Amino acid sequence: MALDPSRAWQRDHPWARIYQAVTGGERVGALLWRLGTGAGVSELHRHARRELEALPPGSRVLDVPCGGGIALQDVPHGRDLRYVAADISPAMLHRTAREAAARGVDGVVVREADMQNLSDPDGAYDLVLTFTSLHCLPDPERAVHELARVLAPGGRLCGSIFSTDAGLRFLPVHTGGRAIGVLGPGATRSQVRRWLADAGFVDAELEVAGGITYFHATRS
Ligand SMILES: C[S@@+](CC[C@H](N)C(=O)[O-])C[C@H]1O[C@@H](n2cnc3c(N)ncnc32)[C@H](O)[C@@H]1O
Q1: Exposed, middle or buried, 89 (CB in 10 Å: 0-12/13-18/19+)?
Q2: Residue 128 CB less than 6 A away from ligand 1
Q3: Which atom of ligand 1 is nearest to the CA of 89?
């Protein structure tokens, strides 16, 4: 029977702790991220800042999966946002809450959620962030539809995936991740593009950084 990677993350698989050390660490973490993904973690922050800085005050943000709260580093200081940080893993949410407190980001609500089946009403958010995410799910296409559903018309989606067509160099990452049960089937870049269109997104932009593909799109 195929392993459900989301359940492994939910139970705080040992890899989740290593991942947190990589993304939460400073120089060594950044180096390990570069070795694993073939690009700098600064790429993630650049994409997150592009969307967060463009938001008017009072905007509603869903960061799912928030992991250890990496995108909180990119919330403009003092910006009035309604920021929901959601993840399937209680341990990750605990890390995010700690990160929000340490960085003095006010008003962050942390919440357990399965991004393939969100409890939010339609159109609840102006921006959804979903970094380093779709490759960790059993059903990433369904998640893309859920993210579209909870975005208001004109709302923005920004995220990333370790795509399966990133090249041979990244094959060990995919195979190893599948073997230890923390990665799902993933997707190629053209699948991601198609899923975004099918879910009702327009103006999709995909940008490749090593093994990771970042995407931005607008909810029609
Ligand atoms: C590789 S981490 C990425 C976290 C963060 N966005 C980042 O870029 O560092 C993957 C995250 O997905 C979460 N996750 C896995 N399956 C999920 C699901 N079905 N719904 C919500 N979160 C999920 C895990 O708990 C983990 O925090």
Answers
A1: buried
A2: no
A3: 25
